[in-house]
Amino acid sequence: MNPELEAFVPLIPPTDLTDPVADRRNYAARAAAAPEPDTTGLEIEDRTVAADADVPVRIYSPHGARGAIVWLHGGSWVMGDLDTEHPWAARLAALSGAVVISVGYRLAPEHPFPAAFDDAYAVLVWAAEHAAELGVDPERIAVGGHSAGAAIAASLTLRARDENGPAICFQLLNQPGLDDRRGRWATGPLIETIGGGHEHAAAAWRHCLGSATATPYAAPARADDLTGLPPAFIASAEFCPYRDVDITYAMRLLQAGVPVELHQWPGTFHGSLAILSAEVSQRQFTELGAVLRRALAE
């Protein structure tokens, strides 16, 4: 493991998701302890997107932005909101020069699939319809996220393709949780222990799905057909349950004719990007911003 990250491993609390309310509170406390981002040059506005269940969004607009990304926070479908994502959404906007539309989607288990998926799709449709108001080119709208949010982002590309929905120019997927099938997850002592490992991931999927059967819109790795999807950047972590799933998905996209950039980060673990003091985390975040900047400029 990366030595800078290894020092933090004993401080990472295991989360079994048996008490989602307490887990959300603890998750919010950890996010609040993160260094404040530099928001100089950003206009930040909270809005509500009208849908079957109205969706709160926070919009980060850098000066001169040409494109936008619908951004979905992580948190195992159970935790996270606009405030917990603020440090990361603001940094992404500053580094990429893109309008970042951070989505406060509904959380499981109170709102299992397809609630978060429907919320995110409603925001995608809204962004496409309000591109002029946002000051961006409607042909330069991307989707992306981290972990559970990245899985939702990937699922949006499937639905937009299947329903002839809004044009998505790019998908930025950081450590996406793409597959609910435990037998396909990566194994190893570090993978199965840090932050709860496999048990945490399994509980997250139980909360996400509720009584629903997993479909490709819930777990995109289940999709048989990946043709016609937008170009993708996928980042995976060495000590992450979804490592092998992410690499396989990237290969399947390539085989389906989709341009893909895959970066497997050695010595990192799921969510280690939050340890901003580590040099590898700084490189990861800088890369996410640079990749999105390039994607929206082309």
Could you explain the architecture of this structure?
With about 300 residues, the protein is of the alpha/beta class. The protein contains nine helices and eight strands. An eight-stranded mixed sheet has the order 1-2-4-3-5-6-7-8, with helices on both faces. Helix 4 crosses helix 6. The radius of gyration is 17 Å and the shape is globular. The mean pLDDT is about 95.
Pick out the low-confidence regions. none
Tell me the helix content. 25-40%
Strand content: 15-25%
- Strand order within the widest sheet? 1-2-4-3-5-6-7-8
Largest sheet: 8 strands, mixed
- The whole-angstrom Rg is 17 Å
Cα(first) to Cα(last) distance is 36 Å
User: SS-based structural class?
Assistant: alpha/beta
Mean of the pLDDT scores? 96
Number of E-state strands: 8
Supply the key terms.
298 residues, alpha/beta, eight-stranded mixed sheet, 9 helices, 37% helix
Give a nutshell description of this structure.
This protein is an alpha/beta fold and about 300 residues long. About 35% of the residues lie in helices and about 20% in strands. The chain is globular.
SSE inventory with pairings:
Layout (H helix, E strand, L loop, with lengths): L2 H4 L13 H13 L9 E8 L5 E8 L5 E5 L9 H15 L2 E5 L11 H15 L1 H4 L6 E6 L1 H15 L7 E5 L22 H13 L22 E8 L3 H13 L4 E10 L9 H19 L1
Parallel strand pairs: 3-4, 3-5, 5-6, 6-7, 7-8
Antiparallel strand pairs: 1-2, 2-4
